[in-house]
Amino acid sequence: MEMKIYLDNAATTPLSIDVFQAMQPYFFENFGNPSSAHHCGREAKNAVEQSRATIAELLNTTPAHIIFTSGGTEADNTAILSGIREKQIKLAITTPFEHHAVLHTLKALQQNGEIKLVYLQHDQKGNLSLSHLEHLLAAGEKAFVSVMHGNNEVGNLNNIEEIAEVCSRYSAVFHSDTVQTMGQYIYDTQKLKADFLIGSAHKFHGPKGAGFLYKRSDAAIRPFINGGAQESSQRSGTENVTGIVGLAKALEIAYDNREAYQRHISGLKDRLIFKLTNKIPGIRFNGNSAQQNLSLATVLSVVVPQSPDGQSPLSYLDQYHICASGGSACSSRSAAGSHVLSALGNDFEGSTIRFSFSRYNTNEEIDHVAEKLAYLFTLSPAPFEYYNVRMA
Ligand SMILES: Cc1ncc(COP(=O)(O)O)c(C=O)c1O
Fold this sequence. Notes:
Blueprint lengths: L4 E2 L10 H7 L15 H20 L7 E4 L2 H15 L4 E4 L5 H12 L4 E4 L10 H9 L4 E4 L13 H10 L3 E4 L19 E5 L10 E5 L25 H16 L1 H22 L4 E2 L13 E6 L8 H7 L2 E2 L15 H6 L6 E6 L6 H14 L7 H8 L1
Helix pairs in contact: 1-7, 2-7, 3-4, 5-6, 8-11
Pyridoxal-5'-phosphate (PLP) binds next to helix 3.
C-alpha cells in the first residue's frame, strides 16, 4: 500500500496525542461552562485560567495580557481593529506578503476611509526595507504597523526585533502576525517591543478553532465580539475550554522541546533541498526559502519546471498520497493566484509547490517525496492529442 505523506503543516498540523489526552477530561467529566458559579463551572474556569497562566509564562508576561480567541484570524482582526480604532490611528503600514486575515482587514478599513494604507518596499526576495519604514514613521503621523514574523507561503522571516525597535522609537503601534512562528521562536515580551502577537493552536499540533492574542498594554481592548463579558469583556462567548486546554498544552510541548524539534525539522528541509536540487534540473526556490537562516525551517517553497507530460505536480503528488500545496491553504480554492508570489514579482517559469514540515515527518518520507517528484520529470512528453484535449 502507498504510504500517506503529509507535508502541508503550514496549513495545519496533526493533533499531538499528549494534547488530546490533556483535552479529554474537559469533554467528559469537566464539561462545565466557566461562567457557571457551581463547582462544575469552577473546574472549567480553573482550566481556562491555568492555561492562560501557562501561555503567559511562556511569553514572559502576566495572564491579563492573554486573550483567548477562535484562532489566528480572529486574533489578527481584533488586534488591527482595536489597535487602530482605540488610538484613532489614520495611517497603517504593512507588507504585501501578509496573510489575508491581516490584508483584508486593513483593506476594509482603507475602503471605509478610516485609514491610509502604505506597503513597505522590498527587494525581489521579499526582504523588507527598514529604511522605508523609518522614513514613513519619521513624517510624524501616528501609525499602526503590521508585519508578520514568518511568511506562510514562502517562509521568509522578518526581523521583528528590529522593526519593533523602530516602531517604538516613533511611538507606532506594532502588531506582528506570529501564527507560523509561535512555538518555534521565543517571544520574550519583556524585551520584544511588540504591542500585539498572535497564536493559533492548530499550527503547532493543537486543536483547530483555538488561539490567542497577546496585548502589551494593561488597558482593556475594544472587543471585536460583544456578548456575555467573558475574557474581561474583551472577547465574549462561552470559552472553548477543550480548545484552550489543548492550545496551552501544545504550546508548552513546543517550547519544552523547541531545540530538538527545530534541529529535526531543519534537517528535513536541508535534505529535501539537497535531493531536489540534485534530481530536478532547473529547480528554483521562492524568496529566501532555501536559506535556513533567513526562513522558517518548516516551509520550503520550490518552483519546478513544466513537466514533460504537462501534469500539474500537485495533483501528481496527490495521486501518490503526498499532501503539499501551491501556496496558502486558505486561498487554494479562490480563483486568484497567490498574492505573495505575485508580490515577489519573480518571473520563474513553472509551478510552485509549498512543502511544509513538522516534527512528525521523517527522512524516509523526504526521500520518497524527492524520488516521486523527480520521476515526474523523466516521463515522456504527452502525445499531441493530449494537449488538444486539454486546450478544448
Ligand atoms: C500567517 C497566518 N496568519 C493567520 C492565519 C489564520 O489562522 P487561523 O487558521 O487560526 O485562523 C494563518 C493560517 O494559515 C497564517 O498562516
